[in-house]
Every structure is written in structure tokens, then in C-alpha cells.
Amino acid sequence: MDLFEKLEILTDAAKYDVACTSSGVDRPGAPGALGSAVKAGICHSFAADGRCISLLKVLMSNDCAYDCTYCVNRRSQECRRTSFTPEELCTLTMQFYRRNYIEGLFLSSAVVRNPDYTCELMLQALRMLRERERFWGYVHVKAIPGASPRLTQQLGMLADRMSVNIELPSQKSLSLLAPQKSKEKILTPMRQIRDGIAENAKDIVKYKAAPRFVPAGQSTQMIIGATPEPDRQVLMLAEGLYKKFSLKRVFFSAYMPVVSDRALPARDTPPPLLREHRLYQADWLLRFYGFQAGEILDDAHPDFDPLLDPKCSWAVRHMEHFPVEVNRAPYEMLLRVPGIGVKSARRIRSARRQATLDFDGLKKLGVVLKRARYFITCKGKSISPLPMDDPAVIAGAIRERGFAQMGKGGQSWQGRELPALEQLSLFAPSREDGVKRLTGQI
Amino acid sequence: MAAGPAYIYRYDGSYPGFLCCVAECFRDKRLPQGVQLLDEPQATLFPIKEVETRPGLAQRVERSLPERISPLAHSMVRRGFLTCMEEKELRLLRFILLGYKHGAKVTNMSTHDDVHALDAALLYLKNEAHYHVEFLRFAECGGFLASTITPNNLVLPLIAPHFCERLNTEDFVIYEKTHQMGFVHQAGGRREFFQAQGWDPPKPTEAEERFRALWKKFYDTVAVEGRVNPKLRRGNMPMRYWVNMTEFQGRL
Ligand code: SF4
Fold first, then answer.
1. Does the CB of B224 have a partner CB in chain A at under 8 Å?
2. Is some CB atom of chain A closer than 8 A to the CB atom of B227?
3. Quick one: CA torsion of B135, B138, B139, B144, rounded to 10 degrees?
4. For chain A, how many structural domains are there in total?
5. Residue A60 in contact with residue A122, Cβ under 8 Å?
């Protein structure tokens, strides 16, 4: 098979993976080596779906021995099978990199023969790149669940970031749809990578030139909408993963029905992009806004509101905390006001040290009051055009316009027809997940 | 400032030349009516003054910027000169005079018309430079890598260091068509800017054509069909940069 066809097949099979960013590590260039890495990551193009292309995202092989129901590469599926040779992969990476097409390589693989054999293949390719070609750019590699720890360790010494896909949000779904995988098999390498990173951090303190193990940290992703878990369970899982495994990111991937199976949504089900979008918004609240998963969704509200973002949704359920006085409210509380993002909250915090703020002052700071006005006072004054105590009225006023207008007939929730798609991309990892996202106002 | 005729300055377009305009303005004790390039057609009713570029004088003005205003203001003037801001010279001139008057404070006076315009122009410059770090493409043409770009601002001095560091093992040329200026880098050696009325890279090699085709294949394949979103793509990657990008060659 020629390289064109291989590239087509192995790109096609890898493209549903969303955890593809080049961020997390600053590595200046080194004389005699090709490449460098920038902490915020660099996008080099945007595909027709509007998502960032940063890394050469391919599989080593799609010749899988496993039979996960939701996957295009499963054993029982008829399709073209192929593998890159380490040499081919190395050439593609080097040649794309020097032309400034990419920041580096994102290497994943189906299970060829068995996990260890697969790891060996990937190791060969990465060694060739790092050691023979002295490639100094970014490498993200997927750990293969079930591989021996020694091989995972070796991969980690050659990569910047590693990830293990959690795949599905529950053990039950896993055993139903991915019978050869298990929670334990997935969590074992995750734990190993976490401990490896911690160990390495100590070594670096002692000995500055100690070789780096996964310097850009660990991430994971899971498929949303292939199985029936409520949003609350997904979010709790994400929160647990951040805490227990010190992950850099948890990515969510709206399930695209690519295979027909009785255990899966029908082929014509559109991917639940709105749900994915809400999960990214909630993820943002966990990471930057000091929210707990249990606050965002609780037993009474196990799923996201299609019309309100999770922060607004929390606020209207907790009107007892509002209005807050902008001049006195603690920073943590400012962050919880709908419409006030991290940037605005910081500006308010530093500006109010100089002078008492009024609404004009807020506007000068660039604070958008469209939604915030229902939840704040300035010097005791409110500019809310509504009575403060009716959550339903406020909820109506701050709904996302695009959705509210959909009205009755058209749009529905959890996966039928989709509302204005371009609005849904704000928080998905479209540009790099660095600075730009930090200013996201929720 | 004192009365006197308001001149139109004409200078050679160089940065030292501009600094001499600053000195001239000081001597005139009055702002010029406009600042033009020597090779622009003369169509004006105002009296013309040709400002000669004198390196020694330019150096003195340059030194006064960090000393009398602030290092930040100095850097803003230098970067500001690379921007495509309208009436760039006049704005910078007024910014400098404002700086002489108010000192370091000037960089915070963002409600002042000229400071505001300069801030906006610098932001555009920075963004456009970043776009070029992302979207610039090299092509292998017999022994070295070549790239042509067409930015609105003169981004070359800002992006060259990034590529020198990253591609230190490569020989490469970046030609900025808009400002007819280029940059050469030789692995482990020469790095310099050059001026050229036009520059055409040698014909791409066969291997080059092959990697372009492979890249296009990758680009087309990696998009997820169910999520096609032209608006998002354009938002992240303005169409004006597509002309120089490999993945769109022969497709626009
Ligand atoms: S292991 Fe499962 S998910 Fe991974 S490629 Fe094979 S079939 Fe697909």
C-alpha cells in the first residue's frame, strides 16, 4: 500500500480523538536539533470542522485485535487495515514539521496483536524521531491499556504528554461496549503516569538535567452520548479524575455513530454537540471558577439545562446568594456572577482597591452587564430591570438567545436536531487551550 | 508651540529617517501637517520639507526615548513603526511629544486618541505576527526552505527569531512581499534581513510536491464530516492568510 493511502486510513481512524493540543511545555530550541515547544501551544491550521490542527494526529495502526462496539477499527468491522512503519511515520513527522505544517506528533494506535507488541512499535517510531533525527518538537502519545509498565515508562520518557482514554463514563458501559477493556486496565497506566510525573518532579529538583517524564502532563477523554449516563455522572467522573490523577485536561467527545449495533444509538443520530458544549462549560467552572461538580448538577437536576449555561443555571437556582455588592463581594463570589469571567473579576478586584465602583466604572473596566445586572449591586444600587426574587423570570431573561428562539417545533435536547452549530464551539478545544480560553466569560 | 508654516515632511521611509523627522519637528516647534515618503507623488498645497536621514541625530533621538519617557514607550515606538496604522508617522510623532511632556505615564493614557490608536495598531501587529507563526508555510526548493508571506504589518522582525530558534538546523528564506523585504537564515550561521523588489523561489522539487500532496490529504481527511463549520474555521483562520498556505494551493 502506498503512503497516501496509509495516511488517509490512519488519519481517518484517528480523527475522532479530540484531546489533540500541543500545550503544556516550554522547550526552547536546541542547537543541532529540529524544533521547540511553546507552553500555550500553537495551531497550524483549522480543518473544515473549524477545529485546530496542531499535531500530526494518526494511528500507528488500525489493525485491531479488539472488538469495541463503538469503534470503527473493531475486529469484526470490514475495513482497509494498515500500519505505518516507524520509518514512514518518522519521515512524515520530520517533513511536515520543517515546513511548519505541524507542532509535532500525536500518536495513538489500535491494539496490533497485543498491547506490548503495539507499544514496541510506537517506541521504535519515537526513538527514531527523538534519538536518530533529534526531533525536539512536541509529542503526545497514547498509553495502551494492558501494556507492561516498563514499556509505558519508556514511552513516557520520549513523549511530552501522555493520555489514556477513559473511553466511557462507567464500568457498566465499558463491559457492554468494550469487553476487552476494564476500568482497572485503564486506570493502571493512568496511575503509573501520575506517579511517574511526581517522581520525576523530585528528580528534577535534585538534578536539573534529569531526563523528563511526560513534562506536559496527562490528559484523558471520554465519549459522550453512546451510553445513557446522566450528565451529573459524567461531570462527577471528570472531577474525580482531576483530583485523583492530577490530569491537565479531561476532553469530551460527542459520539458520532460510525457503526451500527443494537447496543448503540442509531446511525442517523446526530452527535450530541450541545451536551458536549455544556460539559466543556462545566469543566471550565471546575477548573477556573472554583465550582464543585455537585453544585453544578445535583440530584434534583442531574442533566444540563439546554437553554442556560451551567453557571447561569446555578445562579438562578441560588438566588439567595444574590444580588452581590460588587464593591465588597469576595473574589470567589464575583466569579460566580453570570457574565463576569475571570478577567472581569480580576479587574474589579484591583480597581475597587483604588476607588468605589459604580456601574459606569464597571463598563469602563470592560465588564459586560447584559447578564450580570440581574445579580449585582453597585454602591447598593441595582440596575436590574426585573424584580430580583423571581428565578423563573430571570432565567427567561438570560437564556441563550440562539436556543430560546428555536421555540417549540425545531430544536430538541440530547441528540435529535441541532441548534445554531457555530455557537456550540466556544469551549470545545478549537484553538489551543491556553491563554485564549482563560478569558472565556461564562 | 509657536506659529510658523505647517510643513509636509518627506523622508526616506527608514526608522532612522523617522527619528530625524522627530528632531525636525522639535526644531520647528510645531507639528508638521503630514509626513510622506520621498517617492510618493507630490500633490499638496502645503510647503514641503525634505528631511535628511542623519544616523548620529537619529541615535540621539532614539536614546532620548527610554531616558526621557520610558523603556516601554521606546519599545512601543519601535514596534509601532512596523504597523500599518494610518498616518503612522504623525501618530508616533504626537505620541513621542506627549511622552516628552508626561513622561512614563503616557503609555497608560489609553483614552487619548493617539495612544489609543497606537495600542490598537500594536495589538493588530502582535496578532498578525502570531498568525504567521501559525500559518506560514515553507516549501523545499532545492537545498533550502522558502516562504512567501503577505501581511499588512511588517511582521518579519517579530517572527524571524521564532523560526531561527526552531529551525536552527535548516537553511531558509522568508520573503515578505508586502514590504519587499526578506530574511535569510543559514544553519548555524548567517542571519540577515535584505530588501528586494521581488523574489521568486526556485521551482519546488519532486519530493516537495509529494509532501504537499500528503499534507493536503491529511488536511482533508482529519476534519469530522458531521461537524463541518465554515464560520468557525474562518473565525480562527482569517481567509486573507489562506493564499499562502499549502493546504489551499490551487483551491481558492
Ligand atoms: S482497542 Fe477498541 S477502541 Fe481501540 S482501536 Fe481497537 S477496537 Fe477501537
1. yes
2. yes
3. 180
4. 2
5. yes
- How far apart CA A254 and CA A16 sit, in angstroms, is 9
Q: Does A79 touch chain B (CB under 8 A)?
A: no
Is B10 in a helix, a strand, or coil? strand
Do A281 and A316 have their domain in common? no
SS3 content of chain A, % helix, strand, coil (to 5): 40, 10, 50
Q: What are phi and psi of B97, to 5 degrees?
A: -60, -40
Predicted confidence (pLDDT) per residue in B107-158, tens digit: 888 778 899 899 999 999 999 999 999 999 999 988 899 999 999 999 999 9
- Let me know if residue A83 belongs to a domain: yes
Together in a domain, A86 and A45: yes
Residue A231 is inside which H or E element, if any? helix A231-245
- Chain A residue at shortest CA distance from B229: A49
Contacts of A99 in chain B (CB under 8 A): 137-140, 145, 211, 215, 246
Facing A32 at nearest CB: one of B169, B214, B220: B169
Residue B55 preceded by cis peptide, ω within 30? no
Answer for the pair A166, A186: CB distance below 8 angstroms, yes or no: yes
Q: How many beta carbons lie within 10 A of that of residue A382, not counting itself?
A: 16
| C-alpha to C-alpha distance for A45 and A28, rounded to whole angstroms | 22
Q: Where are the alpha helices (DSSP H) in B137-205?
A: 156-166
- Give the residue numbers spanning the domain of A218: 3-296
Nearest partner of B126 among B80, B94, B176, judged by Cα: B80
C-alpha cell at B74: 521606546
pLDDT tens per residue, range A371-420: 898 899 998 888 887 766 677 788 878 876 544 333 333 333 333 333 33
Select from B133, B137, B214 the Cβ nearest to the Cβ of A4: B214
For chain B, say whether A47 makes contact (Cβ under 8 Å).
yes
Residue A265 lies in a domain: yes
CA atoms within 13 A on the CB side of A370: 12
Which grid cell sits at B244?
A: 499562502
Best of A67, A69, A71, A78 for a ligand 1 pocket test (most atoms within 8 Å of beta carbon): A71
